[in-house]
TrEMBL record:
Residues annotated as transmembrane: none
Domain HTH asnC-type per the UniProt entry, residue ranges: 12-73
Pfam families assigned: AsnC_trans_reg (PF01037), HTH_AsnC-type (PF13404)
Alphabetical list of CDD domains matching this protein: HTH_ARSR
Name of this protein: Lrp/AsnC family leucine-responsive transcriptional regulator
InterPro entries for this protein: ArsR-like_HTH, AsnC-type_HTH_dom, Dimeric_a/b-barrel, Tscrpt_reg_AsnC-like, Tscrpt_reg_AsnC/Lrp_C, Tscrpt_reg_HTH_AsnC-type_CS, WH-like_DNA-bd_sf, WH_DNA-bd_sf
Example of a GO cellular component annotation carried by this entry: cytosol
């Protein structure tokens, strides 16, 4: 790896930040479109994107689905505390159930906070029945999401 591909301190310059923001808004933008947006040539933009990927700043390009549009009418947040000796088993169970779309291992009384996308309340019951064999749960139904998952604020370096 070439040394000029390193991003010092993981902070981005203004052009890198603009490129990341544009791609976050529309990951399908072409290199040419990105170049026009930041007043740079396509090869220069391509080199910057390669540098950002190699540094691990950009780890992928994705599609965002609207769960409701594909039949998931209910979301729930589940806090879980494993029964003694069941931590690994609980983690594996969560990973095996595709309706768990996010899960964080946390400190405090609970060990996992997870988000589920569900077709209906009966599906929630089926999943919780499996989880309750190895963990205590506390479930909340999501009424709305004022802040959808978003990218972390960009740290700008230098100027």
């Amino acid at each position: 790896m070439r040394s000029n591909l390193k991003i010092e301190g993981k902070a981005l310059d203004g052009i890198d930040a603009k490129l990341v923001t544009l791609l976050n808004d529309n990951a399908r933008m072409s290199i040419a479109e990105l170049g026009r947006a930041v007043n740079m040539s396509a090869p220069s933009v391509n080199e910057r994107l390669k540098r950002l990927e190699e540094a691990g700043v950009i780890s992928g390009y994705t599609v965002t689905l609207d769960p409701e549009q594909i039949g998931y009418t209910l979301q729930a947040i589940v806090r879980m505390r494993q029964l003694p000796g069941k931590l690994k088993e609980l983690e594996e169970l969560i990973q095996s159930i595709p309706q768990f779309i996010e899960c964080d291992r946390v400190t405090g009384e609970d060990c996992f906070y997870a988000r589920l996308c569900l077709t209906d309340i009966h599906q929630l019951d089926e999943i919780l029945n499996r989880v309750c064999e190895i963990a205590e749960t506390n479930t909340s139904i999501v009424k709305s999401t004022p802040v959808k998952r978003r990218q972390v604020p960009l740290l700008l370096g230098g100027s």
